[in-house]
Amino acid sequence: MKKKIALIFGGRSLESDISVITALQTLAALGETDYDVAPVYLTEGGFFMKGLDDISAFTPFRPDAHTRVTLADGVFCSLRKNRLKREFRPDAALICCHGGEGENGVLQGLLDFNGVSYASSGVCGSALTMDKAASKCAFEHMLLNVVQYHTLFSRDVRRDMVGAAEECEGVLRYPMIVKPASQGSSIGIAAAHDREELTAALAAAAEFDRKIIVEEKLENFREVNCAAYSDGESIVVSETETPISAGELLTFEDKYLGGAKAGEGRVTPADVGEELNALIKSLTERIYRALELRGVVRTDFLVDTERGKVYVNEVNTVPGSLAFYLFAPLGITFPEMLTAVIEDALAGGRERAARRAFPSRVLEFYGKGGGKTAK
Length: 375
What we know:
This protein is of the alpha+beta class.
């Protein structure tokens, strides 16, 4: 019998549209596998199923054209005449959400609560890596290099913009990079070379997130990305890439709207030399293991090309297109990669089901008058 896979995408996120693209690419690749796949779209109104296999369903999305469902006891159910109707019980879920509740651990927690295995990082790893400031603390604890940074809260920035700028200037040097702490796809990111640009960047970032991270900008560097996934027996590390930007920073337009010249979106392997590429691959695997990540995860690095120094920038637990293109140079196809992470998720579900329960008799004992005050 075919295993049933829920392909979950969308979510309340500024990257929801990008998630749709990733999901449709993934759905096409899953067509070459032996799974029974049901796309599940997560949006403001909840979960929706049926009629979600074409981009036209999202331009614009019309809820009444699809079946609204809820997840109850591990089953996606619709509501008909005040009664729940079973629509789809997944054996596992494949998460294609970018940002927001689909990537920050909220969806993962819901799936855990419902006993649904998923091919993605768990609650802890997802929440930690979504927050750029928190993840930098983890990288520092691992004795990995991170660029100098400072964290601010948006409410404080709006209350005292001058004070916030002075606070950054007191610990960082220009130029700086200003980022919303929990956004992706380069949304809300700007460079600042002086006070005027810094205050403008802080004001913009405050519109996108409750927390802001400000970093010193490296002058001579390459952005290098590398991905990894677990096939259940080992960690498979991808080839590296250098993404190409049209300007000073890699922007949302560069990534998704053709900002870089055609054919120049990335250089693979990254043009930083054999030794640094080997180090980046090693660090990618180390981070994947140390943070107990699952599914396909892409780690982004900054490389100081003059000093040969590698900085960890951020970790993406649900990367765009699931980073399948980084594994192609290794001879691994998209369907093969998806099969590996899904089978790993299914194995994780079997492992969870086999865990030994603890036979507590506390309540029985307490009910007979032998209990003590809880401590």
